[in-house]
Amino acid sequence: MDVVSPELNSLLPDEIMDTEAIEDVPLSQPSGTSDQPESGGDTSVPMETDTPMASETLTLCADATEHTQTLTPTDSSLSICSKSQIPISISSMSPLLTLKPVLATSTATTKTTDSMTGTSVTTSGLQKLSAPFTISPANHQIILNKVASSQATEAAKSVGTSPQVIKQEGQKLLVTAIGKSGQPIVLQLPHTGSKPGVSQVSGDAKSPTPQFKVVAIGGRPELKPVVAGTGNQVTTLQAQQLKTVQIAKKTPPSSAAPIKFIITKTVNSKGLSPQTSVAPVLAGRVLTQSSPMMPQRTISLSEPHGTTIQSIAGKKIAISPLKSPSKVTVVSVASPTSNASQKSVALPVNVALGQQILTVQQSTSASPVKLATSQTTAQNIKPVQSVAVGGVGSSQFKTIIPLPQSNVQQIQVPGSRFHYVRLVTATTASSTAQPSGPSTSSIQTAKPMVVSTGAVRMSVPIVPAQTIKQVAPKPLASAAQVVTTTQTQQRLIMPATPLPQIQPNFTNLPPGTVLAPAPGGGNVGYAVVPAQYVTQLQQSPFVTIASSSGFPATTGIQTQAKMPLNGLSTSETTSRPRKPCNCTKSQCLKLYCDCFANGEFCNNCNCNNCFNNLEHETERLKAIKTCLDRNPEAFKPKIGKGKEGESDRRHSKGCNCKRSGCLKNYCECYEAKIMCSSICKCIGCKNFEESPERKTLMHLADAAEVRVQQQTAAKTKLSSQISDLLMRTAPVITSGGGRLPYTFVTKEVLEATCECLVEQAKEAEQTHQPQAEAERMILEEFGHCLMRIISSAGKAKVDSASVSC
DNA sequence: GAGTTTGAAACT
DNA sequence: CAGTTTCAAACTC
After folding, report:
1. Which of A186, A254, A578, A629 is the most buried if burial means most Cβ atoms within 10 Å?
2. A585 beta carbon to strand C: under 7 Å
3. Are A649 and A682 part of one and the same domain?
4. pLDDT digits over A740-766, tens only?
């Protein structure tokens, strides 16, 4: 069941690689406290799910109020409450339930709502979900009660907690709690249990239409029943559609990691294919059901480290960047095709929690990442390329998002760090099992990848750069590829379909790279979108990815990576608005364009005929490929550390200046505020340590800077003085010094003055004075009024002074 | 703001 | 790899 290769596993953080939960089905107490500092600052994150179906709701409630979710619709229901007395009850026809609750205390409330269909997902304050379970075979319900923390901690022991397995008639519900904070709780409801040691009882043959209606997690009082159909009946019965709802729960700073729930529902609308596979991926874990012949349904409830919320329903994807430290971008892609025989959603999610990676993969290969993969899925697995580009300690995540037919919509919530990407995969009727697709064996490359069956595939690996460096830099088989680069920024790549024709070397992909499907090719492309550029995409209908702003630059390399030529720090560069380009002929697809060279999309630029945007994914991809072909390091920072042992930054290639003396910004070294080095080929260089010209220039620059600072300070001081003066003079001075003249212009005075002016105007009108004369008369009267006011003011002041004296 | 200078990128 | 051209930023007026 493991999909992650051992070597990769070894590289992954413990939190991510804690996969024992899945395999170890035995019950275990939820782990203890979460070490996760992440705050629950974000209280709610709206999620958007596309649910063509009627509203379906899965509710997990953890709030103080006692919520008992009992989903006892016809078939099955899932209800999880984390309240102390609140049970998690799961009822399905033939469920095999594995519950691995993580001890997570989260107060964050996440709500996902599908306005279209009314599907809503709500997660709130899910607190320690823990055993014991209460299983009532009679009504197919499993009640998971919150266990006292002490129990949980004991059972949890160090980090991981063994999963709790509840067997119930062939279906299983996996609630996986990862011992460490930040790890997901996965609830999986495969129709048939394939795991050893788990009694596999076929679902109730009489089970009604298999449906999962789980949408709400958290403290929403109104809980809707979750209906989970048995996997057995899927074949021709009800129209099924794949629905995936992922709910992320935020974790308060002190509490355990937030819980993210992913609920995936596969609904075959046409019932064309008996095989329906849903591979929910939660917090880096993918639980897949493997039942070759049986339709699969998986409900995954995961608790991500961060506040990420994923809502995947049908065709929509919600991506929510997290607050640091859990800088996680979650991307979900679902593209159920109406008549696709197999509708599967693979939601492999690699979530980097801070520096952590959560990798969820769907494959049968034994990898540290544990997942339940349906065999049927394997049959239908299409090649999925998940590229994890992790910059060394990069402070940002980049996301490569499969762009299904350019149907990516950005959903952004103002004021929220959560960014959502809606990926609408073009409907392909041929999503049926594709033998030509990557074989399962290829998928089993034991490399971090995510393979999903059906038309939709998702892979969201986020690899911390420092954690993984060269995992699979080499292009892999078409089926699955994992590319890990030492890019300074982390990227999130979500392949949704077979690899596009253009497969540039991801190792050097620039941030913001969009890997688009080849023209006329597959319906899915790749978009590499740096998180910090999400804002650039607000106007873009395609992709939205958000990033957390608080990514700290952990390493010098990282800082340098984000340090453009100007030598600014990462925070500086990210916070400072990028200078707009003015390209006219390059279409912003050549390195002439700074935006393109920096891996950014043009935004608010002055360029003409710009192709450096998501609207021109293909062209941009080609351009990137061209640049990489020409120079594999074209998109790498030019300013990096020097030779080993050298701490000073230096230009990677050196400059070639001839006339500027390397003392103008023409020189890239000078522009980066670094001195030329031995690798420079400049002529007449004056940009060296002892250069008098350089010193003079530096002094001048310093002097200018000081001057600017002084001017700024002077302006500030002057402004402050003016404000202070106004503040002091505005109010009437009643004691001592009297009042300034204008303070005598009270309302009454104004009214009187106006009356005088009006009277003067009337008089002029009555006397038939010309307009000019009338104006003169009025102005004259106004002058008289002013004189009287001033006179009165002076008199009053004198009187006041005399009185005071 | 227009024109010039400059050097990296692109091209041959 | 070197020479040339293209390009956009930097700079000057």
Report:
1. A186
2. yes
3. yes
4. 555 667 778 888 888 888 888 888 888
